[in-house]
Specification:
alpha/beta; globular; 2 domains; Rossmann fold; six-stranded parallel β-sheet
Length: 414
C-alpha cells in the first residue's frame, strides 16, 4: 500500500496532531496509509527512508513547514532529506502568513504550500520569498461519523459549545501603548477603531490592503517594508479576533452553553448560566461535539472557507452557527439560519432559536452536514494533494524520462 508520511509535533491541545490523524480513515478508503512520525522523536525516520517503503511514500504531509528542513550528512555536507530523496512535501497552513512568516518560506519547488483560506493564500502570493506551488486545500470533513452511530437523543439533550481560546483585546492595546512609539501607536489604534466598529465588514479579510491604503493616505509608501506590513497585519488581525471572540463569549453568558478554551480570565462567569472550562484538548472535544446540540464558530477574519470548527461540526452531523459573510454557506440548506452578525440582539436571537426547538436544531445539523459532504467529498482534498505531488515530482526529475522525445534538453535550459 502506498503511504503518506505525516510529520506531527506538539501543538496546544494536540489540535494539529489530532486533525492530521483524522485524515487516516479517508486515506485508507483511497488505499493510502497515513504513516505518522513525530518530530519529537525522529529515530524511526532514517530507517524508514532507507527501507523499501520509502519508494511507496507519495508525499510528506506536515503543518506550517514543520520538518521541511530535516537534513543529513552526506560527504561532509548537510543535505535536505526531502530534496535528496525527491519526495514532495506538502505543508498545510491554517493561519495567516503574518504569523511565523519564516515557516511560510519553503526551500524549493518540491515544497508545496496549501492554505485553508483563500485570504491567507492570496496574502502569501503577494509577499516575497516565494518558492514552489502555493495553493488552497479544499475543505475536509474531520472526525466523520455516520448518522446511525450518533446518539440522537443525547444530542437533543446536549449543550451548545463554543470551542475557542480567549484573548483580552485590552491587553493588546496595552501592549501597543507600552511597546511602540506614538505615531505607530496612533496608526494601530485608528485602524483598530475602524475595524472594531465594523466587525461584519469584509475588510477584515484584507488587512494588508487596509494598512497599505492607510499609509498611502498619510503620504507614506510602505510597499517594500515587509517587516512593518507583517507587524501591522498580525497586530490588527490578533486584535480583531480578540474583540470578536470576547463579544461572543459575553453575549453567551446568559445562556446554558459551554465555553471551552484557555485565556478567558478577563471575563467573569460567576453567577452566569454559561460555564467556562479551561481546556482545549482536541481528543476530548471529539466526543463533546458528537454529543452536543450545536456549535458556535467565529471565523479567523476570513469568509472564503470553513474553519476546522465548522468541518469538525459537520463531520459529527452537528449544527454550527458561524458569523455572516461566509461564502461556503450559500451552497447549504437553511442558509439563513446558519449565520449571525456581530450585533448582540441579532446574535442572541440566533442562540434562542437553536435552544427553542432542539429537535429541529439536531435535524437541521444533520441535513446541513449531509449536504456539505456531497459538495465536498472526503477524498477531494487528498486527490488535490496527490495531483500537486505528482506535478512537483515531475518538475524535479533530473533526467529525461525514458522513451520520451530527444528534441529538448531535460531539465529545460533557459
Amino acid at each position: 500500500m502506498d503511504k503518506v508520511l505525516y510529520l506531527s509535533g506538539a501543538t496546544r491541545g494536540g489540535a494539529l496532531e489530532g486533525i492530521g490523524r483524522a485524515f487516516a480513515p479517508v486515506l485508507k478508503q483511497m488505499d493510502l496509509e497515513l504513516l505518522e512520525i513525530s518530530l519529537l522523536d525522529l529515530a524511526p525516520l532514517l530507517p524508514l527512508l532507507q527501507s523499501p517503503d520509502a519508494l511507496k511514500i507519495r508525499f510528506v504531509l506536515t503543518w506550517v513547514g514543520m520538518g521541511m528542513d530535516i537534513s543529513a550528512q552526506q560527504n561532509g555536507q548537510n543535505i535536505n532529506v526531502w530534496q535528496e530523496l525527491g519526495i514532495p512535501l506538502i505543508t498545510l497552513h491554517g493561519d495567516s502568513p503574518c504569523y511565523f512568516f519564516d515557516r511560510h518560506r519553503v526551500l524549493g519547488n518540491r515544497f508545496i504550500s496549501l492554505y485553508g483560506f483563500t485570504e491567507h493564500c492570496d496574502l502569501r502570493r503577494r509577499l516575497p520569498y516565494r518558492n514552489g506551488p502555493i495553493g488552497i486545500v479544499p475543505p475536509i470533513l474531520l472526525d466523520h461519523i455516520a448518522v446511525d452511530e450518533l446518539d440522537i437523543q443525547a444530542k437533543r439533550d446536549g449543550t451548545l459549545l463554543f470551542l475557542k481560546n480567549g484573548r483580552d483585546p485590552a491587553d493588546v492595546r496595552q501592549m501597543w501603548t507600552a511597546g511602540v512609539e506614538i505615531r505607530v501607536r496612533r496608526a494601530l489604534c485608528e485602524l483598530a477603531d475602524e475595524f472594531e466598529h465594523h466587525l461584519d465588514s469584509a475588510t477584515h479579510d484584507r488587512i494588508d490592503d487596509a494598512v497599505t491604503q492607510y499609509f498611502i493616505q498619510c503620504d507614506f509608501d510602505i510597499e517594500q517594508l515587509l517587516n512593518l506590513r507583517l507587524f501591522f497585519i498580525a497586530q490588527l488581525d490578533d486584535y480583531v479576533r480578540a474583540v470578536k471572540c470576547t463579544r461572543i463569549a459575553e453575549w453567551l453568558m446568559d445562556f446554558p452553553v459551554e465555553i471551552r478554551g484557555n485565556n478567558w480570565g478577563h471575563l467573569d462567569f460567576s453567577g452566569k448560566k454559561a460555564t467556562c472550562n479551561n481546556d482545549c484538548n482536541f481528543v476530548d472535544s471529539i466526543r463533546l461535539i458528537r454529543e452536543s446540540l450545536g456549535m458556535i464558530d467565529v471565523s479567523p477574519n476570513t469568509s472564503s472557507m470553513p474553519h476546522d470548527r465548522v468541518m469538525r461540526a459537520y463531520g459529527a452531523h452537528t449544527m454550527c452557527l458561524t458569523n455572516s459573510g461566509q461564502s461556503f454557506i450559500h451552497e447549504l440548506p437553511y442558509e439563513d439560519e446558519l449565520t449571525y452578525s456581530f450585533d448582540k440582539e441579532s446574535f442572541q436571537s440566533r442562540v434562542v432559536g437553536l435552544l427553542a426547538d432542539k429537535t429541529a436544531t439536531v435535524d437541521r445539523g444533520i441535513a446541513v452536514s449531509e449536504a456539505f459532504k456531497k459538495l465536498h467529498p472526503p477524498g477531494q482534498a487528498f486527490e488535490h494533494m496527490l495531483h500537486y505531488a505528482e506535478i512537483a515530482r515531475l518538475d524535479q526529475v533530473k533526467t529525461r524520462l525514458p522513451g520520451f522525445q530527444d528534441f529538448f534538453m531535460w531539465p529545460p535550459q533557459a
